[in-house]
Each structure stands twice: as C-alpha cells, then as structure tokens.
C-alpha cells in the first residue's frame, strides 16, 4: 500500500524531487524515526555539561552524577577540562530515553573553541540552547544561535538555574525576542512549591511538576491544579499557545474553527502542531529547570523526543547517494591505544566493520573497528545504520569536514543525480538553498576562521623536534582552528590560535599527553596589512640554472580592491599579449603572486583589501614553473615595499558585568586601553553591563586586571569583531613589539 501511495504521488507530481530513492526512504523510516541527533549549545558557565550529566544519569547510562566542580564529568574528560571546569573539546554521548536513542554532542561555550561548535553542527538535526536564568542571552549565546541559523537547525530553549533567587524567567523570554529575534513559546512557568523549592507549571497539561530530591530527582509528581487564580492564569497561557500555533498549523486551525473553542483541543494535537512548527523553525519551545538541583531534566528529554526532528525529516539532499554510504566527519580524536578515532554522522547507507570507504579527496581507507560514542569510553559494534553517529577506528588520512562514501563511482553518481535534481525547475529560493547545500556537501576544506594570536614553539631539545612535530600534526588534525606553519625567515615553527586560552591549552596538552615540555614564545597579535596607494612595476629576472637559461619579465600592479585577489588588465595595449599566455602559466603567475600577500613587509601580517593586476608577462622558452612563480612573488613583494602598507589591528567586543559602584574605575581603565565605550546598560538590581570595543593588543592579561579593579566582583566575555586601522604612533609600537623590542 505504501509503495502504491508513493507511485500515485509520483504520477500526480506531488513527490519530492529526489524520486529515485523512495523505496529506500520507506525502509529507513522505521529505524531512524526513533533517533534524535542533538547538540547542546550555550554561553560559558550556563550549565551545558551539568545538564548533560543529568541526562546520562536519568537515562541509566551512568551510576553516579558527575559534577563540574569535582572534575568527574563524563563529557569533560580531558585533564585541562577537569582542572579548569570548562568544556574545551566537543564530545559525543549516546543514551536511550523513552523508546528513543539520543545522540548528544556537548560543545564548548568559550569563544576560543567556537570551531568545535561549528563542526559539531554538521552532525545534528536539532539543538538545545541553554540559558543562564540569572543572565539571559549573553554574548556567546548570540554566536551559537547564529551558527545554528546558518545550519537551519530547529531549537529548544532550556532556561537553567531557575532555583536561584536572582533568576528572571520573563527577562530571559524578553531577551530571546529582542536579542535573537526569535518567536519563543513558553511551555512551562516557574513556581515555588509548598516547601519553597522550584517546581514547574506545565502549560499544556495544566499540571504542577514537583521533583523529589531524596532520590536525586529521579522521580517527580504530576499534581493536577485545583481551581484557583494560578490555574486560570495557566489556562489563559494555554489558550494563547493554541492561538499562536493555530496561525502556523493547518490541522490545529481546522480543529479550533470546527469546535469554536480552545478548551476542546486535546494535548496530543497541540504537541503535533508544536512539533511541526518547531521543525519548520517557526517557533522555539521554551522549557525551564535547574540542572544542578535536578529539576526539569526529564521533561527536557521528553521535549527532545517530541519536538525535535528525526534524521529522516532532514538532509533530503543526501538522497542523491541512493543506497550507497554517505557520512560526514565532524571530529577526530587520538587515543593512545586505538590510534586516531573519527566521529562520523551517517547520513545515508550503513557502515560495517572492515568496510572500505572513499573520502571526497579521493583517498581510500578501511574501517578497522566501530564504536558507540560515550565521551572517552567505547563499546564496540559491528554495524551502524543511516541517521546514527559512530566512531570509526583505522582512518589515517581523513580530516574534519570530509565526506565519506563507499566508492569513487558512488560519489560521481551522487553529484550527477544532484545536478539533475537541481535542474528540475525548482523555485528560485529552493535553487539558492540547495545550491548552498550542494556546495557544502561536496566541499573538501572546512572554513577556518583567521587566527587571532601567533607565537613560536620550540622543543626542549633537538632530539624532541620530531616528536613535537608529530604531536602538532595530531593536534591540528583534531583542531582545524590550530594553524601550524614554518617561518623560513626566522627558522621557527609558528602556531596560530583563536586566543590566549587556546594557545595555553595546546601547550598544556602537549605536555600532559605527549610528555614534551615545549617552550612557547611571547604571544604576537595577528595584525593584517593593506596598501597605502596603488603601485606599478616591472621585474625582469634572467638566470642560468644547471645549464638551462631561465628568463622572466613581469609587469604587475597592486590596487585597493576587496572583490578578488588576482585579475588581468583588460586595456587594449595589454590584452593581446595576455590572451597569448597559456592557462597553465596564468595559474602559476596567480599562485606565485597571491603567495606574496601572505607576509606583509612591516610585521609579516596577511595583506588584505589588495588586488594584484597582471599587465604583461614574457616567459622564455624552457623556463621552469617554479622560477616563474618565484619571480611573480618577488615582484609583488617589491610592489608592497614601494607602495607602503598600513597596519590593521584586531578589535574585540567585550561585555563586562560589574556592580554599579565599580563601573567608574573600570571605564577609567578601559579609556587607557584605547577602548570605545558603546553603552552602559542596567543588569539586574545592582549590576551594570558595559559594551566595549577595544584593540586586542591592549587586552593582554585584562581578565586579571579586571578582577583586581573590581575586587573579584566583575565578569567579562570577549569575542572578535573585525579589524581597524591604526595611527602612526600605534603602528610604530606594534612594529617594535613584533621585533621583540618592547
């Protein structure tokens, strides 16, 4: 009957445009409908890891609750995470709940590790965003929300720490509307029970939920509310919820119209409408609780099952792989006994132990073993089906972001099918959307943010050089935001990272995991450079190498432009000679010219907002490509020195929360750091929040200085917000610092 129904839909033109895989979709549905792949996102210290620990405990996956302050949590298993009480690496855990299988990724909340969040979002179908009930929407909350928007992920909100006296539920909801511009729907409201403890009023069931602390919150009571003002207010909230959802869901609207009453709408119908609206990202359900006090976690897991989508409801673009395997690599970790372990989200097909896989890069590898994820603990399995998350051992060349499939022909067939489907007269919006998805689908290299800090790294002895290089290769494979390069001028290995904490963690991990006591040089700011004025020059180089005459003459120009890095001068006098150049020579000239922009003449910063324009090139017969490339690079370096460059310094956006009486001292200190005060806002009854933009070079050790000024009462968050030009005095100081003279 199901096959007949699909055949009729195909005949009537009502089916999805990926028609070749409908039988396989039917086969998958029974298994994948019970899987939930979710990420848990938040600002630092909002309670993500504590919430995850409670989920594992109530699901029966752990026998005791881990606590962040005790350093015994499942997902924060690195020594550095347990020492500092923060999440550094995202980790995956799998647990059952009410007939469903939940694959959860606990992600970092610190801005230095935002790349971990970005990679994790490729593996999930929905996210839970945790808010601190005392702080509302914070800086990193906005960042992770934007990342979830980019991946078009349905969301739930869990407002944590609602047991605290300074928690403000209404302010959190207002923040969601104002700062995130979303449509929150409150399914619960906080209340204190007869013992003065946090309880929850459920809007849909009109019940009060009260948790039993004697059994660590394992059980809770559903108490039907007696007629009272509280019940009447809750009924009004329920009616508002139905009214809001009926404007978004046809099934619910039909029932409301036919019954002419909100009271006759049953709970199951509300939940179905809420699920559809959430999956379509029209609304965001809001729940509350206190993870530390064991309140509200079970209902949060129920909401994950009820409102977030199953794998089969998303990622239809991967149907182009048919019955073949398609998997996305979202994280790699190195285990001392098992070697490199690759975390893969299986999007289509089935991965089995001993299977041969091909990456989009064309490299073939064999899966030696498969494991079910539970942070740093592993349970071996023989096969894992579509929609699930698995750890693969034995993949030696695969890197984060790779697409894995069963064969090269399967990859080519998928690309062919995808092109055919995109050409089947889609709407403009669908075409743009799926074009973006297809670019992301077959992309080879992940988009890595620019480094904020650089520093040199040295081994303790020459004999440790090889071991240090191997450690850095493994760490870079785990963390794509870590940049490792060799500076040919100084002869040093140079690390690039996202912040002071990021660099400190790398050094600590090399010592604790690889037993190498490396020495990091002083942190250098990742300045950028841009040209002051256009410049044009011709460079002719003639040399004999190994009896072969090498001859190149190039005319290049640098101009201010942000559109593209390299272009051809289309003037009538130059165009004929440029058209005579072979495409391969043009590619060599382009590569050599652009490589020179990687190191500016003043502090070695990346040269930006600059275009190289080729006017003419004469290449002698038998001249090697490497000689042509080196000449092009030398010509660009000459141009940069001729035109002169200005420095651009990284600017950081700060949010500082402090008691009102400490604000004047903090602002006075910021003014000495070339900071721009954007606003000072009230934050609760006694505190204020300062919004500041300040140069990164002035913020070294600022968190310690802030603690001193405020006597430990202020808190701060910081994230990059672009680059800004500098005056001559500050440029001179930056150059002296880069040369080690300050």
Automatic annotation (TrEMBL):
Cite the Tr-type G domain residue spans from the record. Answer: 33-312
Where, per UniProt, does this protein localize?
Mitochondrion
* GO CC, any one term: mitochondrial matrix
Keywords linked to the UniProt accession:
GTP-binding, Mitochondrion, Nucleotide-binding, Protein biosynthesis, Transit peptide
Provide ranges: composition bias, Acidic residues. 429-438
Q: Where is this region: Disordered?
A: 416-438
- Residues the record lists as binding GTP: 42-49, 106-110, 160-163
State the superkingdom.
Eukaryota
One biological process GO term for this chain?
Answer: ribosome disassembly
Q: What is its main location?
A: mitochondrion
Q: Name one Pfam family in it.
A: EFG_III
Q: Describe the family membership recorded for this protein in Swiss-Prot or TrEMBL.
A: Belongs to the TRAFAC class translation factor GTPase superfamily. Classic translation factor GTPase family. EF-G/EF-2 subfamily.
The free-text function statement in the UniProt record for this protein reads: Mitochondrial GTPase that mediates the disassembly of ribosomes from messenger RNA at the termination of mitochondrial protein biosynthesis. Not involved in the GTP-dependent ribosomal translocation step during translation elongation.
Instruction: List the HAMAP family hit by this protein, alphabetically.
Output: mEF_G_2
Protein name per the record: Ribosome-releasing factor 2, mitochondrial
Q: Which source organism?
A: Drosophila rhopaloa
């Amino acid at each position: 009957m199901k096959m007949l129904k699909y055949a009729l839909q195909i005949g009537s033109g009502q089916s999805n445009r990926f028609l070749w895989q409908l039988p396989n979709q039917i086969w998958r549905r029974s298994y994948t409908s019970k899987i939930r792949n979710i990420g848990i996102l938040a600002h630092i210290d909002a309670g993500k890891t504590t919430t995850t620990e409670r989920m594992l405990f109530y699901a029966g996956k752990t026998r005791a609750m881990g606590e962040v302050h005790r350093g015994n949590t499942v997902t924060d298993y690195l020594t550095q995470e347990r020492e500092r009480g923060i999440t550094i690496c995202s980790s995956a855990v799998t647990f059952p709940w009410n007939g469903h299988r939940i694959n959860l990724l606990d992600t970092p909340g610190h801005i230095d590790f935002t790349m971990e969040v970005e990679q994790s979002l490729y593996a999930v179908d929905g996210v839970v965003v945790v808010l601190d009930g005392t702080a509302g929407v914070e800086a990193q909350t906005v960042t992770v929300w934007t990342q979830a928007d980019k991946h078009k992920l349905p969301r739930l909100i869990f407002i944590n720490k609602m047991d605290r006296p300074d928690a403000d539920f209404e302010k959190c909801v207002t923040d969601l509307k104002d700062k995130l511009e979303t449509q929150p729907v409150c399914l619960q409201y906080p209340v204190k029970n007869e013992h003065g403890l946090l309880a929850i009023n459920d809007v849909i069931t009109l019940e009060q939920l009260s948790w039993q602390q004697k059994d660590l919150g394992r059980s809770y009571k559903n108490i039907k509310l007696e007629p009272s003002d509280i019940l009447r207010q809750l009924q009004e909230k329920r009616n508002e919820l139905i009214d809001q959802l009926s404007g978004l869901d046809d099934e619910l609207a039909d029932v409301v119209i036919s019954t002419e009453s909100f009271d006759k709408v049953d709970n199951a119908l509300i939940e179905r409408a809420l699920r559809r609206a959430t999956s379509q990202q029209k609304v965001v359900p809001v729940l509350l609780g206190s993870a530390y006090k064991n309140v509200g976690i079970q209902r949060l897991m129920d909401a994950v099952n009820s409102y977030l989508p199953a794998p089969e409801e998303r990622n239809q673009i991967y149907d182009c792989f048919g019955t073949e395997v398609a998997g996305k690599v979202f994280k790699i970790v190195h285990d001392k006994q098992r070697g490199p372990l690759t975390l893969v989200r299986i999007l289509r097909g089935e991965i089995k132990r001993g299977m041969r896989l091909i990456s989009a890069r064309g490299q073939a590898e064999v899966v030696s073993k498969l494991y079910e994820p539970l942070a740093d603990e592993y349970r071996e399995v023989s096969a894992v089906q579509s929609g699930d998350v698995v750890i693969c051992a034995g993949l030696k060349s695969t890197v984060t972001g790779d697409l894995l499939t069963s064969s090269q022909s399967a990859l080519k067939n998928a690309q062919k099918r995808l092109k055919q489907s995109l050409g089947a007269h889609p709407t403009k919006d669908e075409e743009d959307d799926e074009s973006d998805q297809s670019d992301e689908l077959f992309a080879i290299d992940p988009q890595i943010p620019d480094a904020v800090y650089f520093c040199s790294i040295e081994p303790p002895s020459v004999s440790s050089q090889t071991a240090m290089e191997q450690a850095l290769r493994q760490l870079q494979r785990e963390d794509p935001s870590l940049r490792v390069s060799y500076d040919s001028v100084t002869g040093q290995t140079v690390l690039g990272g996202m912040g002071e904490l990021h660099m400190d963690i790398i050094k600590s991990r090399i010592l604790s995991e690889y037993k190498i006591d490396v020495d990091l040089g002083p942190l250098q700011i990742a300045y950028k450079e841009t040209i002051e004025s256009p410049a044009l020059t011709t460079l002719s180089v003639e040399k004999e190498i190994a009896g072969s005459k090498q001859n190149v003459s190039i005319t290049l120009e640098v101009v201010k432009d942000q559109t593209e890095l390299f272009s051809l001068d289309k003037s009538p006098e130059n165009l004929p000679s440029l058209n005579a150049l072979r495409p391969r020579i043009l590619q060599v000239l382009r590569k050599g010219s652009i490589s020179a922009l990687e190191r500016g003449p003043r502090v070695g910063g990346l040269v930006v907002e600059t275009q190289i324009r080729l006017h003419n090139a004469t290449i002698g017969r038998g001249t090697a490509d490497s000689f042509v490339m080196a000449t092009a690079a030398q010509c660009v370096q000459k141009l940069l020195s001729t035109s002169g460059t200005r420095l651009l310094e990284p600017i950081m956006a700060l949010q500082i929360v402090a008691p009102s009486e400490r604000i004047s001292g903090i602002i006075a200190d910021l003014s000495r750091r070339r900071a721009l005060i954007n606003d000072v806002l009230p934050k609760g009854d006694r505190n204020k929040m300062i919004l500041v933009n300040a140069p990164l070079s002035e913020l070294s050790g600022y968190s310690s200085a802030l603690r001193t000024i405020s006597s430990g009462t202020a808190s701060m968050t910081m994230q990059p917000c672009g680059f800004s030009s500098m005056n001559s005095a500050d440029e001179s100081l930056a150059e002296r610092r880069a040369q080690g003279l300050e």
